[in-house]
């Protein structure tokens, strides 16, 4: 799966797997209406009076993100998460689970205790050598802090939803016309005429006014804000400097050896204390020095915290005070580069507040913020070039799309100078000669007919907008249609069933009152 993860089909399969799982884990491991509300607005979402708590949303969000990370075999960056819309997908799936459960009850769907028991028995986590193990079932639920009653109720709800979905899917039909259309799509070849425009093609014609630039800056302040900056004074106490002043008794060395026995392994296993006595004593001395150093720094910090007197604290510790210039969280001062926890603490402190101790591999820090500059939106004059570049990209995309829409009208009249793709067959990947890869455009191309040869709207492929017209369609002979029709009908049925489910859920959402917390963003 990872090998072919760039495939459009595989990505669709991933999304279906993940979104299906979200609904299940929401019902199994947390139900919005059963928990007390929390979060900035009291809840993550409200669905016809049923609350999805922020706690439940966060749990499902992190589980969903972990699923994606397992699928892709890597940690997701914030940019990747935003691109995938994981937060939105999570809350939408939780909302739809509530709507589906409510409608299942309205439909009169029932679930027996035997059905619940049978489903639970199928869960691999509850099986021992392929057979349901009641003790393992109880242990697994206990480990996840879920009671059998809550789990079984959630399983019942899950089965209710699945039964309701199955009833909806039963309405799906594949007509003879559908089968013939799919046969022709798979076997015909098309030749397209097209006209395309990209932002780069049109940006030379775009003139931006100061008013437009200023408005864009105000509407997109986060893109141009200067980052928050701080400068700090700090003192660093080395644990190693105190090690020579600390002694340990044989009993302390022995105790350290016992507590950290895994550190003292040889080829034949754990080495006896007598063989590693010197090393264990040195390690115990180092650990004791680090502990006593931290306690001493903490005691000193507490003594001078009220006055914020870092100089006095450093003098009491026998260390010196260093200062940094202003720096950002993304680009710390060179002297403290790599000290992630120290940098984080610096941005959490108020100006002139004494902070710490902060223990790192280098030693134990006390720090004080001596200057702090908040994030701010600079005046247009300072960021004009950046704003122009961003706005040109936006305007360029708008103009390119508009020109492609105008080209469609010209293609209808037959007056546009167009390029051609040459004949090509249908491909699920969406690979179109001379254009690129676009499943959307591929579907649109094979929906074109001599009677309706021009696409209804332009399609974006990469950075370009394409207006397309059918030049020629080479129809395949239908001699093999009878032989292929049964397979085509069977292959089309899941798609038709999904269309019915989508239509059903769209109707439920239209009738429901849904409020999603504004703090939940992609």
TrEMBL record:
Belongs to the PpiD chaperone family. Residues 277-307 form a coiled coil. The keyword 4Fe-4S does not apply. This is Periplasmic chaperone PpiD. SUPFAM superfamilies: Triger factor/SurA peptide-binding domain-like. It is a single-pass type II membrane protein. The chain crosses the membrane at residues 12-30. GO terms for molecular function: isomerase activity. InterPro entries: PPIase_dom_sf, PPIase_PpiC, PpiD_chaperone, Trigger_fact/SurA_dom_sf. Residues 248-384, 398-484 form the PpiC domain. Keywords: Cell inner membrane, Cell membrane, Chaperone, Coiled coil, Isomerase, Membrane, Transmembrane, Transmembrane helix. It comes from the Bacteria. Pfam families: Rotamase_2, SurA_N_3. Its main location: membrane. It is found in: Cell inner membrane. The keyword Protease does not apply.
């Amino acid at each position: 799966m990872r090998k072919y993860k760039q495939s459009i089909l595989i990505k669709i399969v991933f999304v279906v797997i993940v979104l299906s799982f979200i609904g299940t884990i929401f019902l199994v491991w947390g139900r919005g209406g059963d928990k007390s509300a929390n979060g900035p607005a009291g809840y993550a979402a409200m669905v016809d009076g049923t609350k999805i708590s922020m706690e439940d949303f966060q749990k499902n969000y992190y589980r969903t993100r972990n699923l994606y990370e397992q699928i892709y075999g890597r940690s997701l960056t914030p940019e990747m998460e935003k691109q995938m819309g994981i937060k939105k997908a999570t809350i939408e799936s939780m909302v739809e689970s509530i709507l589906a459960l409510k409608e299942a009850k309205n439909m009169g769907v029932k679930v027996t205790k035997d059905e619940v028991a049978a489903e639970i028995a199928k869960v691999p986590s509850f099986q021992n050598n392929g057979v349901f193990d009641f003790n393992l079932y109880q242990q697994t639920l206990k480990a996840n802090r879920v009671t059998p009653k809550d789990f079984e109720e959630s399983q019942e709800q899950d089965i209710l939803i699945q039964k309701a979905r199955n009833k909806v899917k039963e309405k799906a039909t594949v007509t003879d016309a559908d089968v013939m259309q799919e046969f022709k799509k798979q076997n015909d070849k098309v030749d397209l005429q097209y006209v395309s425009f990209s932002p780069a093609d049109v940006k030379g014609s775009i003139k931006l006014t100061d008013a437009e630039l200023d408005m864009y800056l105000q509407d997109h302040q986060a893109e141009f804000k200067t980052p928050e900056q701080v400068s700090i004074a700090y003192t660093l106490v080395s644990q190693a400097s105190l090690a020579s002043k600390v002694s340990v008794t044989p009993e302390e060395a022995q105790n350290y050896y016992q507590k950290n026995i895994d550190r003292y392994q040889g080829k034949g296993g754990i080495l006896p204390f007598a063989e590693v006595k010197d090393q264990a004593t040195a390690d115990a001395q180092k650990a004791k020095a680090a502990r006593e150093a931290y306690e001493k720094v903490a005691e000193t910090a507490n003594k001078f915290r009220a006055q914020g007197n870092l100089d006095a604290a450093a003098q009491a510790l026998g260390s010196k005070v260093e200062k940094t210039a202003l720096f950002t969280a993304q680009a710390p001062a060179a002297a403290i580069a790599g000290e992630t926890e120290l940098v984080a603490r610096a941005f959490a402190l108020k100006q002139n507040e004494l902070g710490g101790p902060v223990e790192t591999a280098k030693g134990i820090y006390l720090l004080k913020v001596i200057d702090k500059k908040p994030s701010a939106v600079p005046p247009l004059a300072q960021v004009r070039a950046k704003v122009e570049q961003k706005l040109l990209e936006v305007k360029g995309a708008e103009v390119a799309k508009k020109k492609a829409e105008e080209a469609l009208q010209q293609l209808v009249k037959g007056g546009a100078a167009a390029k051609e793709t040459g004949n090509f067959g249908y491909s699920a990947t969406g690979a179109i000669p001379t254009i690129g890869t676009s499943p959307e455009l591929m579907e649109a191309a094979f929906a074109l007919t001599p009677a309706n040869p021009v696409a209804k709207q332009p399609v974006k492929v990469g950075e370009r907008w394409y207006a397309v017209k059918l030049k020629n369609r080479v129809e395949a002979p239908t001699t093999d249609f009878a032989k292929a029709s049964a397979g085509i009908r069977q292959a089309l049925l899941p798609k038709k069933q999904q269309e019915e489910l989508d239509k059903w859920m769209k109707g439920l959402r239209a009738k429901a009152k849904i409020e999603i917390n504004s703090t939940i963003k992609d």
